[in-house]
Amino acid sequence: MVNGRPCYVFSQDFTVLGGSLSETFAEKMCKVMDMAVLYGIPVIGINDSGGARIQEGVESLAGYAEVFQRNVDSSGVIPQFSLITGPCAGGAVYSPALTDFIFMVRHTSYMFVTGPDVVKAVLNEDITKEDLGGANTHSSVSGVSHGQFNNDIEAIIGIRDLFNYMPLSSKEYPPKIQWTEADEQNQVSTKLLDNIVPDDPNRPYNMKLVIQTICDRGKFFEIMKDYAKNLLIGFGRVKGNVVGFLANQPQVLAGCLDSDCSTKGARFVRFCDCFNIPLITLEDVPGFLPGKDQEHGGIIKHGAKLLYAYCEATVPKITFITRKAYGGAYCVMASKHIKGDTNYAWPSGEIAVMGAKGACGIIFRGKNTEEETANYEEKFANPLKAAERGYLDDIVMPRQTRAIVFCGVTGR
Fold it and tell me: What residues have CB less than 8 Å from 355, skipping those under 6 apart?
C-alpha cells in the first residue's frame, strides 16, 4: 500500500550476483506485472542491476524481452514507475525507459547501454560513469529521467507524492481529496495574477508562480524540471481535483517551443489522456525556436509530436493565453482549432502570425515602419480579433483563472 492505495512492487537486489537478471527472476517480474494489469493496479520497479546474467546466456536475454513486452502491454493501462537506486546497464535500461516515470539518485544511479570501459575500448574516450549516465546527465541533458534526488529516501518520498495524483488504472479517475470552504479561505489570493504579466511584452516573468497560485496550497509537482526548461509540465490540484499543467516558461528562451520541449510535452499530454487527467495549458509562446541546430535536430517531426498529442487527446482541455500566441505555436498549444474544449485569453493576450516588428518589416519593406508597427500592434496585439471570430470563449481577468479551471474540470 502507498498512502492507503494498492500497488505492486518488484526490486532487484545488487547483493545477489550484482542484481543481474536471471531467467527465474525475469519470470517473477513478469508475474508481478501480469497481476498488476489483471487487477488494474500501478506497478513500481526498483532497479539496481548490472544487466543480464552472463552465465545463463540467451535465457537471460529472453527474460529481458519478456519484461519489455509486459512494459508495453501495461503502457496506458496502468501507471508504471521506475526508481533507479544503483547501476542500470545494458539491456536493463530498456525496461525503465518503457515506463511512465523514472526517478534517479545523484551520485548513486547510473543508466547506460555501454559503460565507460566499453566507450574507452571502442572510441578511446575517457568518461566517468556520472558524465556518461548519471542522474544529472539524464535529468538535464538526455531527458531520460523525470527527476533526480539526493538520496534513496528522498526518491521514495518523491514517488509517493507523485503516486497521490495517479488513478489506479486507465479505467478510473484520479483520486479527489476533500476541499472545504475553510481551505479555500486559506488559499493564496488569485488577485496576485492580475499584476504578474509585465507591461513590456519583451520582459520575462515566472510562469511557475502562475501555476502555483492556481494550485491548492501552491503545491505543484513538476516533472522533468531540469530538462527543456522552456516548457513546464506537472501535476496539481484545484479544489481537490487533479489536473495536469503544461505551460511555456518565458524566463527560458522566451518560452519558444524547441525539439526537446516538444517531445517532453507530447509524452506528458499522452499520459494525461491515457489516465483521465484534465489538461490545463498556459500559453505565452512567441513561436518555434529558429535556427540551423533546431532544423537539423528535427524540430519539424518533434513539434508534430506535440501537435498530434493535443489533437488526439480526449480529456478536458482548457487553455489560457497569458500573453503571446504567435504563429504555428499558437495552433499547437491546444487551440480551439484542434478541439480545445474551452479557450480563454487574459487582457494581455496577443494572437497573431508573428510579432509586430517582424511582420511590418516583411509587409512594408522598411517603409513607414514605426507608423505601421503601431497600427499592427493596435489591431493584433490584443485578443479581441480572435474573440470576434469565436476562437476564444472569453477574455477573462487573470484572477478568474482558478475558478474557471474548477468549473471546466467539474462542470460546476
Answer: 286, 324, 326
Instruction: Tell me which residues are annotated as active site.
Output: 90-91, 328-329
The CA distance from 296 to 289, in Å, is 12
The residue behind cell 520575462 is: 204
* DSSP annotation of 175: P
Pairing verdict, β 43-49 and 80-89: parallel
The three cell numbers of residue 394 are: 472569453
* 3-state SS class at 318: strand
CA dihedral sign, ordered 395, 398, 400, 406: positive
Inform me whether the pLDDT recorded for 397 exceeds 90. yes
User: Does residue 185 surpass a pLDDT of 80?
Assistant: yes
Q: Is 297 exposed, middle or buried (0-12, 13-18, 19+ CB in 10 A)?
A: middle
The 3-class secondary structure across 279-296, one letter per residue, is EEEEEEECCECCCHHHHH
Q: How far does Cα 210 stand from its chain's mean position? A: 17
* Vertex 50: Cα angle to 102 and 141 (nearest 5): 40
CB neighbours (10 Å) of residue 356? 20
pLDDT in tens, 128-184: 999 999 999 999 999 999 999 999 999 999 999 999 999 999 999 999 999 998 998
Q: Quick check: 326 and 283 in contact, CB under 8 A? A: no
CB 332, CB 310: distance < 8 Å: yes
User: Above 70 in pLDDT, residue 366?
Assistant: no
Q: 242 phi and psi, to 5 degrees?
A: -75, 135
Angstrom distance (rounded) from CA 309 to CA 156: 30
| Cα–Cα nearest to 410, from 182, 243, 246 | 243
321 touches 347 (CB < 8 A): no
Cell digits of residue 62: 529472453
Whole-angstrom Cα distance, residue 136 to residue 225? 11
Q: 170: helix, coil or strand?
A: coil
pLDDT of residue 25: 86
DSSP string, 231-248: EEEEEEEETTEEEEEEEE
Residue range 381-400: mean pLDDT, rounded: 92
